[in-house]
Design goal:
mainly beta, Jelly Rolls, 2 domains, seven-stranded mixed β-sheet, 1 helix, disordered N terminus
Length: 233
């Protein structure tokens, strides 16, 4: 038997080597994989260190209370922490909200105690990230508001590909610079009564112009309630 569900933990085969206290998620094969900003939101914390193909027990976030996690950077006690690279957490807003740091981390790799959110807290908390340079969004940033606040020139935000239907992001122009949203080579954007060619991007450059894009089941991003002029290229 490769899996075992207990009251607050789940044992499953690992898709890769995993280190104790890394954040993990269940991939499409039902195996534990290391959570990053590009993956779906983390679901649990590894209890042990296990090689690829081994069986790992991981503690679910819905267990409540607090869990030990690995910091990706210096973090102050009391700071909100978010999903970061390599199964770690950071107070830089880069991925899904994880909880509140109960300890301070002085550097990358420190293990800290993190208070998990109360039921509904993660869903009710609005997440905002401003970019001043080109960037790629990850699935774990589902529901984020993305801005070009502080940008001194054109920036391109690349959407993830192959995401679950219903994944969405809100975009807002806050600097009078071109904010481009790139759907990727195989995806299209449905906006203004038309569907763009695959690989198109949309842009706007006036402050307060905004747009919400929602992923459908056909490799499209559907524009919802666009404000201002968004041009398809």
């Amino acid at each position: 038997m490769s899996t075992q569900l207990r009251s607050t933990s789940f044992s499953a085969v690992t898709a890769e080597a995993i280190t104790r206290f890394q954040a993990v998620y269940l991939n499409s094969s039902g195996q534990w994989a290391v959570a990053t900003t590009a993956t779906p939101p983390a679901e649990a914390i590894a209890i042990d260190t296990v090689a690829s193909g081994g069986t790992l027990a991981a503690e679910f976030f819905n267990s409540g209370g607090s869990l030990k996690m690995i910091a990706a950077e210096a973090i102050a006690a009391g700071a909100r922490v978010y999903q970061a690279a390599a199964g770690k957490v950071a107070d830089t807003v880069a991925g899904a909200f994880i909880g509140t740091a109960l300890d301070a981390a002085s550097a990358d790799g420190d293990v800290i105690e993190v208070l998990l959110p109360t039921p509904g807290e993660a869903q009710s908390l609005g997440h905002f990230r401003a970019y001043t340079a080109d960037a790629s969004l990850g699935v774990s940033m589902n529901g984020f508001t993305i801005s070009n606040l502080g940008a001194a020139g054109t920036i391109t935000i690349s959407l993830p590909t192959g995401v679950p239907a219903g994944t969405w992001y809100r975009f807002v122009v806050q600097a009078a610079q071109q904010l481009r949203i790139d759907a990727g080579a195989s995806d299209a954007i449905m906006i203004g009564g038309t569907t763009s060619a695959d690989g198109a991007y949309v842009w706007a450059d006036d402050e307060a112009e905004s747009l919400t894009l929602v992923a459908d089941t056909n490799n499209n991003w559907v524009a919802v309630s666009p404000v201002g002029t968004w041009t398809v290229v």
